[in-house]
Fold:
Amino acid sequence: MSDINIWLLAGTGLFAGLFGSMLGVGGGFIIVPIITLASGIPIQFAIGSSLVSIVINSCTATSVYISNHMTNLKLGLLLCTTLVPGAVAGALLGTLLPEPVLTLIFGLLLIYIAYTMLPKHPGPQSVEEMQTLNSASEQPQDAHAWLDDSYYDPALGHEVSYKVHHPVTGLVTSFFGGALSSMLGIGGGIINVPVMNKLMQMPDKAAVATSSIMLAFTTMTGSIIYASHGFIVPYLIAPLCIGVYIGARLGATLTNRVKGPVIMIIFSIFLMLTSISMLLKSFHIIGG
Amino acid sequence: MRVVIDNQHEKLHRLNRHIGLTLRIMTAACLILLLAGMIMYLVTGASHPVEITPFPALLGNLLTFSPSGIITAGLIIMLLMPPVVLAISLAYFIAEKDVKPIIICIVLVLMLAISCILISK
Structure:
């Protein structure tokens, strides 16, 4: 078994927190491959530690979003009712699957994430497009109107009201999102946010804020299961969590100073290279 | 009608502020413990291999004033944050007699309880 290198873990956490915050994701898909490839720590330990670090990252983000009233709390809790069982199923599967299989699945997921990060046209739906869609599909007696919400957008300078569509489909998708998240140690924002934004037609800021509270529940459940299987080591999680926290704070400050598409392209290339390394590792072509 | 909606909005905003404040306090406490444990670990200069740490052993650390015990205390606070958010929300929705969110919160509590039972077996 490998020894713990605190500085490598803190550095990985800092890097993941920095880029995760700049890209609006939890950072688990950065932490797991780096820890696995750079320090040779078995992937289950890397996944467990990653999940724990995302708990603190998502709780920090939630404290900010919810204080600014951007989080749709009722919807977030509703989606958690399927997300939590999904997380249990995913984590149990993750602790049982052999390491090469998990590494292979992770490598394939990284290729997908790298592809989705490349800048494309048209971009995510804007608030104005959402409002047009919402008014077009408005019904006088909406069965799930109690999920509708609003928030103040400082960039637009006015209150944004929105309706939530297809909550049942959202519940089904959340189950699989939770499973994938817990199995691979990723936050799951990469799955939740597009579902809420594109399918449930929520504005992107509300989707990101609501996803962050959901991540807290998914990663907490996953962390407990990995801990119960012995894959949570205190000396692994402390430097990682502190690194992630500092990195996320720095990233939030730097976001406005760096050009978004440039970060996305550089990061996509990094992820592609990492995914190739993970695939090679899964087939025992390289060690780690 | 407008006054009622504004009143509900204000109450929901108050809930949001309470949750935000609670999460900030718990995050700060958790980070302090993680940092303290890590500094103690660095000072002792011991080397630790990455190996399976059984759950009872992990919780048993809490009783010892060791770097590992302090980090585990931080971990416990961290893992308690989502249930605390759920408890605050449930209390608020019960006070407001908002039936649908109450049912959701109870279902979520049950899901978490069933998960814990499954994990312990």
